[in-house]
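pinned: reference chain
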Amino acid sequence: MLLLDHATLYTPTQCYDPGRLLIADGRIVAVGTPDHVSAPAGTLVLDAHGLIVTPGWLELQINGGFGHDFTEAPTTIWEVARQLPRYGVTAFLPTIVTSPLTQVEAALEAWRSGRPGDFHGAEPLGWHVEGPFLNPGRKGAHNPVHLQLPSQAAVEGWRPDQGVRLVTLAPELPGAEAVIRYLVSAGVRVSAGHSLATYEQALHAFDLGVTYGTHLFNAMPPLEHRAPGLAGALLTRSDVTVGLIADGIHVHPAMIALAWRAKGPQHLNLVTDAIAALGMPPGEYRLGDLDIRVDATSVRLPDGTLAGSLLSLDTAVRNLMAFTGCTLPEALCTVTITPASVLGLSDRGRLAPGYRADLVFLSPEHDVVMTLIGGQPAFGAEILEERLHGRVEAGP
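pinned: its structure tokens
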């Protein structure tokens, strides 16, 4: 057992300051104030004074990192997963961009093969398959050679237990309706993105079961007052969650503030759309089978098209607060409760008894200083060692 003491705990919707949290066997046993949380004699005590403790953070769209591209080399999900906890990420959806369906199957097999024996890192929850059922008119950085119309035969067998958690498609394409119905019935979350859908087509897709929008404002027509399109539908439909890249490059801070006012913490989900260059120096990298150029701030195709980002999730959280004026608890919802709700996860995204002991420790400046996954350090182990100060002797 491990008792966190003297922490500022964000559940994230409640705050306990000072707070206590008790962990046993990788799960949260109790959370609350010192008056209400006690531990058996012999429990290790971690002094979390001065630290903010939050639920583990979930990332629903990331293409790679640390020199590895998931589409090109799907087995690298485990190597990237080892390093993501430095940014507060405890679980994620590795994302495969438009490519031959044989490469999608290779990605699913990489996930089904399971973790290496010595693995400890962020948990890949299954794949976000972004394409190939995208509109060529809003392909973004996806290779048009591999784009195809949606067909049920192409997605046969796609379901969460086989490695498909989320699929981005253009709902206006011929064949999309049947594919949406099939995926939804299989338990796969379906997202509208890389699309030229009209407002009316988007609403129809939502009625079919589309519950998410991929990187709001990007790879869709601009918001227009007489033709609101997909962006307008995503902003005004109260039961649909949107992913948003809050780097200030993909979306202007003023539009991020607009999205925040429209969606709020319950239906806005911060994503990074990060690529292999995350955590790496500027240079030449790959996104699928395309060459991309990385400078100090952005990722682009040779023609200047944005091709993912260099954003880390902790930076996205800080940016959201700076761009919108929202509070830390509100910002935390966008990377904890909200993405957990998108995926229907019942044991992640909160600090509550029975939930996984996936925890992020922040400094007062909101920098990640330690991450626990299943109650074990995945980043900042030296902080854990420094702050352990004995065991509970007896009583509360």
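why pinned: The first strand starts at residue 2 and ends at 10. The chain has ten helices and 23 strands.
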